[in-house]
Amino acid sequence: MSAIEWDQALIEKYNYSGPRYTSYPTALEFTTDFGMAEFDAAAERYSQRPLSLYVHIPFCHKLCYYCGCNKVITRHQGKADIYLDYLEREIQAMAPRFAGRTVTQMHWGGGTPTFLTATQIQRLNGLLRRHFHFADEGEFSIEIDPRRIELSLLGVLSSEGFNRISLGVQDFNQEVQRAVNREQDNGFIRALVARAAELGFSSTNLDLIYGLPLQTRESFLHTLEQVVAMKPARLSVFNYAHLPSRFAAQRKLKEVDMPAPAMKLAMLQDCIRYLTGRGYQFIGMDHFALPDDRLAVAQRHGELHRNFQGYTTQGECDLLGLGVSAISMIGDTYSQNHKELKQYYAQIDALGHGQSVGYALNEDDCLRRDLIKRLICNFELEFAPLEAQYGIAFNDYFAEDFALLQPFVDDGLVLRKADRLEVTLKGRLLIRNICMCFDLHSRRQARRQQFSRVI
Question: What are phi and psi of 380, to 5 degrees?
Fold first, then answer.
C-alpha cells in the first residue's frame, strides 16, 4: 500500500476534537430509555449471525497515570474470584439469548485480563465454552500486561484456545516508564513475543503511546526500532490524550514534561515514515499491520470493519459484551453494562443482568453508520450500494453533508466523483474529520469537547 502523504499545514488546520468512530452514534447518545426488552428484541432480529464475545476484566495491580480505561486498582486477588462469581451469573443469564449462534471471535480486555491467575483464566474460559458454542477456528485474543506474569502463562493461554495476544508496551524508555508509573522489563517483553511465535499464536499486537512525559522524537524512534526488531504482526500507536478533568490519574503527570503539539506531530510523522518504510501497512488512524496479517488482507479486499474493539475482520458478527462497563452491538442497537462495579454487582443481584444504558438506531443512523464505517475502513465510498440498500438518491440525501465536506474537497483531502468518494493519501490521517461531515450527532458543537483531538 502507498505511504501516507504528510501535509503539515492541513494537519494543523483540521486537528480539532472528534470521535474515534468505534460506533455511530457514539456512546454519548446512550440513554436509560434502552433496556433489556429492547436488547432481547435486537438479539432475536438477526438470530443467525455469528457472535463475537468481549469480556471486560477491570482489575489492575498498579495505576498507570496516563490510563483512561475503566479499571479497579487492587492487590487483592480474591476480588477477582468475587467478580468471576458475578460474571458467571451474567453468562448464565445472557447465553440462552444466543442459543444456536456460533462464537467466531472473542476478546478479553480491561483493566488487565492477566490480573487473573492461570486457574481463574481456566475457570472463566471454561464457563464461556460451556455456555456458548465456539467455532473450531476463530480469532480468540487477550490483552496482556507484561509486568506481572510468568512466561509459562502463554502456554496456558494457548491450551485454552487463545491465538492472538496484545501487549501493552507504551514505551521502551525507562525514564518515560517511571514518569507514567509503568516500569517494565523490556527484555521480558522480547521473550514474550518470541515465545508467542514458538507456540503458534497467529498474531501479536503491541500497543505504543506517543505524547507521554519525557518523550522526544529520538527516544520514541528508538522504541520503534526495538519494537520492529521483534516483528509483531500488528501495532497500535496511540496519541496520548491529556484529559485530567475526566481522568484523575492524569493529574499526576506534569504537563511541562509533555511534548509540545508540534513535537507530537513530528513524532507521529516519524512513526508513519518508519513503520511504512519497514513494510507495515497503515490500516487507519493509529493502527499498522504486516501485509500478510488478516487485518491488512481484509482492508485490501474491502472487508475491514470497525467496532468498540477497533478495527476487526469479523464485521458480520453481533458483539456481546460481558462484565462491568462492557458494550454490546446487537443488531441495530448498542447496549452497555453499568460502569461502576458496585452498581454492576447490585443489578445482577436484583435483576440477573448488568445492562444499564443503550441506543436503538433509526434508519438514518444505520445509513450513516454504514457510510462512516466504509470510509474509515476503506478510505473510499461507492454511492450505489447504499442507494440500493436504503432507497435514497445519495447526492440529494446528503446535500447538507456535502456542503460540510467541500473544504476537504477543495484542500485535496477527498476526491468527489460522480459515483463515489475517495480519500486521498494526504486525507487519510484526517479520516475522523472527514467522517464528521456525515455525523448528525456531532454537529452539536458542545459535544465535541467530550472527545480528544484527532491527532
Answer: -155, 160
State the CB neighbour count (10 A cutoff) for residue 292. 10
Half-sphere exposure of 222 (CA within 13 A, CB side): 11
Determine contact, residues 216/167, Cβ cutoff 8 Å. Answer: no
3-state secondary structure of 93: helix
Question: Beta strand 414-416 with 203-210: parallel, antiparallel or unpaired?
Answer: unpaired
The amino acid present at 21, given as its one-letter code, is: Y
**449 pLDDT band (50/70/90 cuts)?**
low
Question: CA-to-CA distance for 302 and 297, rounded, in angstroms?
Answer: 9
Distance of CA 110 to the CA centre of its chain: 12
**Could you please report the per-residue DSSP string of 34-79?**
--HHHHHHHHHHTTTS-EEEEEEE-EESS--TT--S--EE---THH
Residue 435: strand, helix, or coil = helix
Q: Is the pLDDT of residue 111 over 80?
A: yes
**Which has the higher per-residue pLDDT, 453 or 156?**
156
> How far is 133 from 98, CA to CA, in rounded Å?
9
Alpha helix stretches (DSSP H) within 236-317: 261-277, 294-300
What span, in angstroms and rounded, lies between the C-alpha atoms of 315 and 304?
Answer: 7
Of 230, 178, 241, 181, residue with least CA distance to 201: 230
Q: Cell numbers 468527489 correspond to what residue?
A: 416
The three grid cell numbers given for residue 400, joined into one nine-digit string: 447538507
Distances (CA, A) of 101 to 96, 98, 357: 10, 6, 24
More confident residue, 169 or 310: 169
Cell of 449: 469537547
Give, as one character, the DSSP assignment of residue 32: T
- Give φ, ψ of 48 to 5 degrees: -95, -5
67, 20 contact by CB (below 8 A): no
DSSP-based three-state secondary structure for 361: coil
State the amino acid at position 37 in one-letter form.
A
Class of residue 362 by CB neighbours under 10 A (exposed 0-12, middle 13-18, buried 19+):
exposed
pTM: 0.94
